[in-house]
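Renewal narrative, Specific Aim 1. Our central claim is that a sequence can be written position by position from structural information alone. The example that follows is taken directly from our test logs and has not been curated for this report. It begins with the structure tokens describing the chain, in the order in which they were read.
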């Protein structure tokens, strides 16, 4: 029998894309009687109340977490330790503390020591997002059909883990479990490296002297603009990911650089067969993603064709 996904009081700390989407999903599924929220700025807290994805806005993280049965920390990874230290004395016995951080080893290092006895810490990471941030970016369907990875620490309370899993399922997610170190390695290749490549390509284009910026923008439908979506992601969030998943990211960047050199060599030596084989292999990966329901099969990501070529507008 699966666990009950409902909580009496949920606290969401960090009210941006992920915290906001979670609030909307909780409301949609009627999964809590009350949601208290906290974010650093008054403007974000006010906006969250206006939109209605939290019921009350606290003026400190501690106040938001007090009396909550579930506390979900949805701040950038670099802020998690300080938030955990602040809420520590106010956590209710039996409460579950979790997070949405994109990195897990560093979160366990920073939050773990601040979880009192009798409180259950179950780190988590919803593999769902967009390039937008802030309270207006959230929407209830963000987690639908997407994986949420839980990385329970040794000795984690089984009932707490099962309850949190049931909660994420009721928010629309499919739940998976991983060792935290393995999570960080997997995410380094499926999320962190793609973002870093995108930041790098867009940076390179921005630095070019032989091609003007207006040409880059004008002809971006040639492929460049698909990288700009990733490269427009929140700078604070991505700075924190780089600083907190250093080893796994450096490992993947090393592999990437080697493979890039191999590709350079194939181009230099006119190795058409090598290039063709690589491109055939990578095309099959795209097919597998579509078959797994993790993206649309529609051409050009299902974009409105009137937006496909800006010249038509
Ligand atoms: P976001 O839209 O930028 O929102 C971050 C929120 O955290 C804002 O409300 C911000 O408050 C608040 N905040 C920052 N520092 C804080 C602190 N010290 N105390 C309390 N609140 C604080 O970011 P997001 O995209 O929702 O990401 C949140 C977390 O989810 C990150 O850890 C990220 O790694 C993870 N994640 C993101 C994605 C994604 O695609 N974006 C996907 C999965 C997981 P203000 O608005 O007042 O500045």
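The sequence written for that structure reads:
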């Amino acid at each position: 029998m699966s666990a009950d996904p409902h909580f009496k009081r949920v606290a969401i700390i960090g009210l941006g894309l992920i915290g906001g989407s979670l609030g909307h999903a909780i409301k949609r599924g009627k999964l809590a009687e009350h949601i208290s929220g906290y974010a650093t700025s008054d403007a974000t807290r006010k906006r969250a109340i206006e939109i209605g994805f939290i019921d009350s806005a606290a003026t400190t993280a501690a106040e938001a977490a007090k009396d909550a049965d579930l506390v979900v920390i949805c701040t950038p990874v670099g802020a998690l330790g300080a938030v955990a230290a602040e809420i520590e004395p106010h956590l209710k016995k039996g409460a579950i503390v979790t997070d949405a951080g994109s990195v897990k080893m560093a979160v366990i290092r920073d939050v773990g020591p601040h979880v009192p006895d009798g409180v259950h810490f179950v780190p988590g990471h919803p593999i769902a997002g967009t390039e937008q941030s802030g309270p207006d970016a959230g929407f209830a369907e963000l987690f639908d059909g997407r994986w949420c990875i839980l990385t329970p620490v040794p000795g984690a309370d089984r009932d707490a883990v099962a309850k949190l899993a049931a909660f994420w399922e009721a928010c629309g997610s499919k739940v998976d479990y991983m060792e935290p170190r393995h999570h960080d390695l997997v995410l380094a290749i499926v999320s962190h490296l793609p973002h870093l490549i995108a930041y790098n390509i867009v940076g390179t284009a921005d630095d070019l002297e032989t091609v003007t910026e207006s040409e880059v923008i004008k002809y971006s439908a040639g492929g460049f603009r698909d990288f700009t979506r990733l490269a427009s992601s929140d700078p604070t969030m991505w700075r924190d990911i780089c600083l907190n998943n250093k080893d796994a990211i450096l490992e993947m960047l090393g592999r990437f650089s080697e493979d890039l050199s191999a590709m350079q060599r194939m181009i230099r030596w006119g190795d058409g067969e090598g290039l063709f084989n690589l491109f055939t292999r990578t095309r099959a990966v795209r097919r597998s993603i579509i078959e797994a329901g993790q993206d649309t099969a529609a051409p050009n990501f299902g974009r409105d064709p009137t937006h496909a070529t800006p010249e038509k507008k």
